[in-house]
């Protein structure tokens, strides 16, 4: 079985939506050309059936048995060709759809991982969800329709040649009538796409609202705001529903036009052809051929209209994908290297020594978060790592050596073992040690499957304190050179917090660790405490010394205790 999609999607051409679609087509050009060949043969086999049928009817009228058998054999052969090429056309259509769609999934997923926090700052949750829900499908459809669309154009040309060579008048009627009907439905496409865009935007906003409500549901219930947000969600969902009805109205008009207009052409061709047959200008078989072609041309004409619709949607979808792929990370790295050493933030004066267990107590929590972001290279700053500027190191190296673990980290779906051991290399003993240090053994013991139990999306089955302890165990198991923990015990009880603080030093022995907290239970168990006020280091020492020598620190710790 062939792997789909390719392991490496390559580097896309994101200079414009058209160039992105063209790049996709070139990436799967062999499959596209093969599919177009089968689709063209499939359409031509259908296009030749009315001509063969007309010739067979004329042979029957002339009582020419040999010709009748020959044309019957040709009809059978055309049927077999249709069956085979139809199967192959469909297989290549599905393959091309999946290739383009999932190549886009690979690219957007890779870009999301590259952007990190930048993505959520530049795009809303609903926008990203809409790309995954609908845009990739439109891009796949734009590749799929190329097969039938190209074949339908070839079929229309072939039918036109046959009709003009048989009867120039009727041939010209069909030749002129098909483009006129196609142009007649064209004005409906623009309002359709306009309404589709509005529906998509409203759906994206609704998805963003849903994510916000779910993320803050506990808070909403606590302040009594659940009903207010429910009403707002109901209003927005109704707007999205009305927009969907508007799309359906235009689509119904388009579908009706694609039936009525070809019907008028069929009636006109049939009436004129019947008059010609009465005057012996064409044979009965040719009259049947003209009627059959007028009916047949409905299908390729609708395919051309469908192709215009899908290609337009694909172009719009590609514009949104290109927008995501064009975003550059707020934080970029260089090509330098360092052997490690002291990690220092010159802006605040915070210095983290190798092998030390240090606590950072900030008068304002946002100052601690800002420092952690700079030390972890999640925001720009004058930070050095040993003898090297942190900004000069590759981002991948920084992420591997410096881990910032905060309470915004998520638990993902899968087994608990895989969730904790993200690298897949930890032994059972190492996992047990990490769980012990995070006081999370009881969580695993309570699960029916233990470490093999399935974790729901975002760890919904765990309480806030349980999630925090599991995140801490995951961070400890990663065993980075530098670990920065942001309020790692804010959701646990005092007894559990004290045990975690006692075990943290042993779990991180020989490694640099910074704990951003104002909890006295943690501050009293670390090697060194740094007090920050207004974004700058104001005092350093042990917890006990700072309580007596720094009133501002004592006031901050007291507030953290209550």
TrEMBL record:
Q: Where in the cell is it found?
A: Cell membrane
Q: What is the recorded membrane topology of this protein? A: Multi-pass membrane protein
What Pfam families does the record tag this protein with?
ABC_membrane, ABC_tran
Question: What Gene Ontology terms describe what this protein does at the molecular function level?
Answer: ATP binding
Residue stretches spanning the membrane: 31-57, 69-88, 145-164, 170-189, 259-278, 284-304
Q: Which domain of life, per UniProt?
A: Bacteria
> What's the protein name?
ABC transporter ATP-binding protein
UniProt lineage: Bacteria, Bacillati, Actinomycetota, Actinomycetes, Streptosporangiales
């Amino acid at each position: 079985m062939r792997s789909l999609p390719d392991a490496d999607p390559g580097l896309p051409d994101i200079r414009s939506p058209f160039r992105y679609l063209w790049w996709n087509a070139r990436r799967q050009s062999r499959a596209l050309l093969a599919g177009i060949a089968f689709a063209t043969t499939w359409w031509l086999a259908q296009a030749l059936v009315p001509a063969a049928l007309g010739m067979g009817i004329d042979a029957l009228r002339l009582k020419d048995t040999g010709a009748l058998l020959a044309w019957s054999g040709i009809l059978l052969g055309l049927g077999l060709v249709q069956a085979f090429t139809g199967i192959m056309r469909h297989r290549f259509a599905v393959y091309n759809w999946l290739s383009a769609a999932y190549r886009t999934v690979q690219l957007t997923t890779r870009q999301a991982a590259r952007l990190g926090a930048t993505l959520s700052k530049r795009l809303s949750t609903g926008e990203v969800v809409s790309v995954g829900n609908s845009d990739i499908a439109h891009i796949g459809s734009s590749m799929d329709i190329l097969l039938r669309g190209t074949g339908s154009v070839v079929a229309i040309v072939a039918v036109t040649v046959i009709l003009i060579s048989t009867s120039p008048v009727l041939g010209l009627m069909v030749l002129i009538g098909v483009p006129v009907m196609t142009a007649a439905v064209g004005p409906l496409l623009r309002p359709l796409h306009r309404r589709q865009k509005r529906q998509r935007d409203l759906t994206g906003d609704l998805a963003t609202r849903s994510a916000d409500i779910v993320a803050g549901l506990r808070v909403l219930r606590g302040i009594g705001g659940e009903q207010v947000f429910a009403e707002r969600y109901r209003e927005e969902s109704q707007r999205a529903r009305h927009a969907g009805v508007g799309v359906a109205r235009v689509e119904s008009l388009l579908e009706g036009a694609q039936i009525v207009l070809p019907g008028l052409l069929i009636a006109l061709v049939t009436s004129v052809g019947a008059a010609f047959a009465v005057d012996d200008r064409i044979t009965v078989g040719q009259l049947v051929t003209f009627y059959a072609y007028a009916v047949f041309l409905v299908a390729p004409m609708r395919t051309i209209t469908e192709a215009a619709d899908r290609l337009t949607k694909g172009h719009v979808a590609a514009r949104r994908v290109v927008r995501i792929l064009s975003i550059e990370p707020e934080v970029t790295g260089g090509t330098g290297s360092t052997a490690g050493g002291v990690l220092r933030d010159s802006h605040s004066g915070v210095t983290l020594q190798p092998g030390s267990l240090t606590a950072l107590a900030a008068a304002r929590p946002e100052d601690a978060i800002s420092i952690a972001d700079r030390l972890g290279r999640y925001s720009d700053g004058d930070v050095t790592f040993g003898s090297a500027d942190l900004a000069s190191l590759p981002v991948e190296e920084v992420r591997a050596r410096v881990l910032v673990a905060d309470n915004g980290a998520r638990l993902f779906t899968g087994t608990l073992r895989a969730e904790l051991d993200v690298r897949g290399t930890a032994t059972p003993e190492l996992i047990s040690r990490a769980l012990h240090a995070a006081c999370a053994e009881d969580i695993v013991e309570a699960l029916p499957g233990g470490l093999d139990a399935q974790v729901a999306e975002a760890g919904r089955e765990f309480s806030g304190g349980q999630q925090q302890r599991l995140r801490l165990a995951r961070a400890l198991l990663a065993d980075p050179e530098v670990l920065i923990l942001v309020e790692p015990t804010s959701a646990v009880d005092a007894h559990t917090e004290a045990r975690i603080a006692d075990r943290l030093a042993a779990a991180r022995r020989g490694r640099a660790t910074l704990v951003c907290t104002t909890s006295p239970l943690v501050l009293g168990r670390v090697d060194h405490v740094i007090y920050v006020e207004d974004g700058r280091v104001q005092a350093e020492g042990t917890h006990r010394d700072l309580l007596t020598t720094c009133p501002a620190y004592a006031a901050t710790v007291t507030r953290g205790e209550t």
